[in-house]
Amino acid sequence: MQGPPQADLTGGHPPAFTGRGLRKTYITGETQVHALRGVDFEIRKGEVLVLLGPSGSGKSTLLNIVGGLDRPTEGTLHYEDVELTALDDADLTRFRRRQIGFIFQFYNLIPSLTAEENVRLVTDIAENPMDPARALELVGLAERRAHFPAQLSGGEQQRVAVARAIAKQPGVLLCDEPTGALDSETGVRVLETLDRANRELGTTLILITHNAGIAAMADRVFHFLDGQIARIEENSRRIAPSEISW
Ligand SMILES: Nc1ncnc2c1ncn2[C@@H]1O[C@H](COP(=O)(O)OP(=O)(O)OP(=O)(O)O)[C@@H](O)[C@H]1O
């Protein structure tokens, strides 16, 4: 199998993801939508990367492809030295289960299970999980582990979703508008848990947001426009989530 491209934009570390010429065309009846029009990128291991851009510019499409939920129409994608675009469905699912944690705008917790039971759903089937109590402690909810989702605020529910995503110790966390439904104060607390997972566990963090203020907590920002990465911005300093101007 051919290795990943060698373009070294990563300061000597092998990239987590390398995408080359990725295109995604959705065909619905007579209509074709070019959601990605040929994107090339490296995503560095352990970085915080924000995807920013107008609605419909292709951010979620890229996130879903990187997370193995969808496949590109054209192009190649590697995770480290594995070509994801060459895997069959079973192997792509295995990659996703092992390496990827997802966090969405709506928390998708099971209402009839406590916070800890929601986390345990994942740790029971993961290969190398952390203790659910430890995951809840990392997001600041050790005291609330016997609470049901309805007994938790929106921000707390999202932190349970973060605990669930990090408990299987994935290499990568993918977040699609994780603070989209939250006010600034609770949003900051959720971002703090993601920042902590990145710093303490070394998890690569990729985050879609419409809030340009959040981009300042990233190492880099991919600016999307019309299915392309129009510009890559590198922050000289990552600010703490508490310093974000919302
Ligand atoms: N399953 C699908 N079938 C058809 N078209 C789709 C599908 N998913 C996305 N699209 C289209 O692809 C384009 C890119 O969508 P995508 O969701 O990636 O954008 P986005 O930048 O994440 O937008 P938003 O910020 O609104 O979530 C849009 O025009 C969208 O309507």
UniProtKB/TrEMBL annotation:
GO terms for molecular function: ATP binding. Residues 17-244 form the ABC transporter domain. It comes from the Bacteria. SMART domains: AAA (SM00382). Keywords: ATP-binding, Nucleotide-binding, Transport. InterPro entries: AAA+_ATPase (IPR003593), ABC_transporter-like_ATP-bd (IPR003439), ABC_transporter-like_CS (IPR017871), MacB-like_ATP-bd (IPR017911), P-loop_NTPase (IPR027417). Pfam families: ABC_tran. PANTHER family: ABC TRANSPORTER ATP-BINDING PROTEIN MG467-RELATED (PTHR42798:SF2), LIPOPROTEIN-RELEASING SYSTEM ATP-BINDING PROTEIN LOLD (PTHR42798). Belongs to the ABC transporter superfamily. This is ABC transporter ATP-binding protein. It comes from Altererythrobacter litoralis.
